[in-house]
Amino acid sequence: MVPHRFGQSPPFSVGLEEELFVVDGETLEPAPVPAGVLDGVRFKAELFTSMLELNSSVCSDVGEAMGELARLRTEARRRLNAHGLELAAVGTWPTAVAEEQEVTAEKPLLRFAEYAGSSARRQHCAGLHVHVGVTSPEECMGRLEAVLPWLPVLLALSANSPYSAGAETGLASTRAELLALLPRSAAPPAFTDFEAWARFAETLVELGLADDLMRLWWDVRPHPRLGTLEVRMPDQPTRLAVTGAFAALVQALVATADPTAPPTDRGLYAQNRWAAARFGAAAGLVHPEGERLATPRELLGELLELVGPAARRLGAVERLGELDGLDQAGTQLEVGRREGLRRLCERLVALTYDGI
User: Fold this and answer.
1) CATH code where residue 225 lies
2) Residue 69 lies in a domain
3) Which is nearest to 240 in space by CA: 112, 82, 93, 77?
4) If residue 295 lies in a helix (H) or strand (E), which one and from where to where?
5) Can you give the residue range of the structural domain that contains 79?
6) Long-range contacts: 342-349, Cβ < 8 Å, 24+?
7) CA 118 to CA 322: how far, in whole Å?
8) Distance (Å, rounded) from C-alpha 214 to C-alpha 336?
9) What is the pTM (predicted TM-score) of this model?
């Protein structure tokens, strides 16, 4: 069996990863991160030089994790401002042309870019990854299946990438479409157990199709090295408080999920993922029960009722109010159409620092 750390951190402990853009303070166009800004632990390189990743430590609750992220955003801003740069949290940078971005000169990233070709060169997009500690490999796989039907709701509510290359894409989450270009993306296969997942991941490495067991870009995946179930579905939120809301929702959802759940319907998942990416908060989604359509807001109401007891027990229920009426993609489009993309970019930078 693949070595793992499941059960080595407290149940439902939290770790957060934010993928952020770096832009020139004057032009607001993507700019490379100076080498001295990164440390490989809390401030990590991304596929493109104009992005970086902020990583919290393993935290006992969402409040602790959000305190860390606030400090990390503040410190990243300080380091970048010293070079005339700004930090920006959003799913895609509105004016950026993905294919023009420079790939980071690190061997694993260069190998991936070479292997995935144009699919990799289009991945100039950013998401929020929420790690939740679970006690065993089999519990992780069961909770993954129970969580999966609700993930398109998270995508619809978090959609924050309606622009690419200076134009509207017609999608609320362009990021979701871009990620779907990658091998091993969207929903994971329905594995019978953790050992089946491990055999799959090891086979990819043995055949030279991946250089690491975690070259899996699914919307949710087991992460044995960290002992977590990792939910990768949300677009990167702009305001820190919204990151906190999605972190609280994911933690409570994982804590509520049935650890013995059987495989769920991948066909309905694919339909709902597409609809959430296309329409965002206005999507019509097939209810997880599979018998009717519902709006993301209706489903959010049901989801909050479902996870409410866990959210209260975990001390994060008050953060969930940030999700009420959230429509980041719609707001972006309103500002872009009314005031232009320069003003939109300025607004995104300002909101990145909101509350920190």
Assistant:
1) 3.30.590.20
2) yes
3) 77
4) none
5) 14-350
6) 342/28, 344/94, 344/163, 345/23, 345/28, 345/88, 345/93, 345/94, 345/95, 346/28, 348/88, 348/89, 348/90, 348/94, 348/238, 349/23, 349/28, 349/86, 349/87, 349/88
7) 36
8) 37
9) 0.98
- What's the pLDDT tens digit per position in 31-85? 999 989 999 999 999 999 999 999 999 999 999 999 999 999 999 999 999 999 9
Nearest residue to 345 via CA among 163, 133, 214, 189? 163
- Angle of CA points 18, 21, 25, to nearest 5°: 135
- Specify whether the backbone of 245 is left (phi greater than 0), alpha (psi in -120 to 50) or beta: alpha
Residue 355 located in a structural domain: no
Residue 155 within any structural domain of the chain: yes
Q: By the 8 A CB rule, do 17 and 28 touch?
A: no
Q: Report the DSSP beta bridge partners of residue 164.
A: 167
Which DSSP state fits 293?
Answer: E
Residues 256 and 310 sit within 8 Å (Cβ to Cβ): yes
- Number of domains, the chain: 1
Angle at 249 between CA 229 and CA 133, to 5 degrees: 25
Q: What are phi and psi of 283, to 5 degrees?
A: -70, 155
24 within a domain of the structure (yes/no): yes
Query: Which tokens hold the place of 14?
Result: 């939290």
**CA–CA dist 177, 219 (Å, integer):** 12
Does residue 14 sit in helix, strand or coil?
Answer: strand
Alpha carbon 145 to chain centroid, angstroms: 18
Tens digits of per-residue pLDDT, 270-320? 999 999 999 999 999 999 998 899 999 999 999 999 999 999 999 999 999
pLDDT tens digits for range 190-222: 999 999 999 999 999 999 999 999 999 999 999
Q: How far is CA 210 from the centre of its chain?
A: 21
Give the tokens for residue 128.
């929020």
Contact 116, 103 (CB under 8 A): no
